[in-house]
Amino acid sequence: MKSDGKHRGEADIRVLVVDDEPDIRELLDLTLARMGLTADCVGSVGDARRLLTEKRYRLCLTDMRLPDGEGLDLVRYIGEHCQELPVAVITAYGSMENAVSALKAGAFDYLAKPVSLDQLRLLVRSAIDLPLHNERDTDSVTQALLGDSPAMCQTRALVERVARSQAPVYISGESGTGKELAASLIHRLGARRGAPFIAVNCGAIPENLMESEFFGYRKGAFTGAESERDGFFQAAGGGTLFLDEVADLPLAMQVKLLRAIQEKRVRKVGATGEDAVDVRIICATHQNLKALVEQERFRQDLFYRLNVIEVRMPSLRECRQDVQLLTKSILERLANAAGLPVPCLSPAVVAALDEYPFPGNVRELENVLERALALLAGNTIELADLQLTAPVQDGTEPAGALPPDHLGLQEHLDRVERQTILDALHKTRFNRTAAAKLLGVTFRSLRYRMQRLGLNERE
Hints:
Low-confidence stretches: 1-9, 391-401
Strand order of the largest sheet: 2-1-3-6-7
Helix content: 40-55%
Number of domains: 3
């Protein structure tokens, strides 16, 4: 059997093809053979189950409709009995509902009829490139998503499982819970780990530039387009495109994004034709997408397409038993980076951290510890060094919250306002226009408040 290049011992790699149409089986068998792979082709669920008990495969390709069952039946069977085996389904043209159902059931990926041989080869390569059990860097997940709480253990397990799929992932959770970190881990643990991971903050892109930023543009497409440029989709080719704060996309852009995801093709601004793109989409937002769909602020069809697998990042309030472990890890990292000895925590500090609600979650914990370390005079962090304030929700102080005894009312309010603005700036990567939108104020108002509070852009 001739190979167009050995790839990780391809001569020994077997693929199971399940389709009741002889022509399709022959096409897939021939394509796989030209890739240097061995294919076993059968036409029913029963025959597939029999071979799965007799041989070891690196990929299963199955049609959705079979004489003795559905492709989904085989997806579920493999998920229960052959958890290491990626399975991809072949769906009828335009049947996105079937494709999404298969991905939700645990399928690795899907192909639409008529089968594109280029897409087939990409899918096969991705499946073969999945790390085997003894090659997985599971330690990186444990180190990145620290914690022994049930909520965090469940999240880590889901991240590892999702990494072995090509399905779109929706990461939900409050601000500061580590949504981008989870997206990066999913990328690094999967078949696309050697390709780019491109993170995009959808709320920081001006609406009039969105199409060109996402899809690129041709030379001369508009004033200032002096040369051709790729967009985010092309930059992430072969890898992962992470859309942070996807809820901030305007409706017009949501339509274009939906088409790009479904067709796996994009058109540059000013171009007459479309280009194929191979990216995995992971998105995140701290907002409630379901509520936005009900309010008709987010397209239901796009939500359905993005929310194939949901990974919910737990708040720090749900992982209180992990606070001390996280505190120790963050302090060690910050102290080592600053060339300082790791400080001790007074009993009052330990108690305060355990009780504090952390509305800003792990990001807030890190900010508190970084500030305490920067201002530390001795070797022990005391309660006063933390400068914990009453939690801020939606930019307003909770009813009944009083300023600390040593602060006047205006000083206390200034501190709360200053921290709220800083949180918004950090979240938008210091894009003041996006931060103003997030805070619900005008750009001019934000600029005035920053000047009054003595803030600069990169504080």
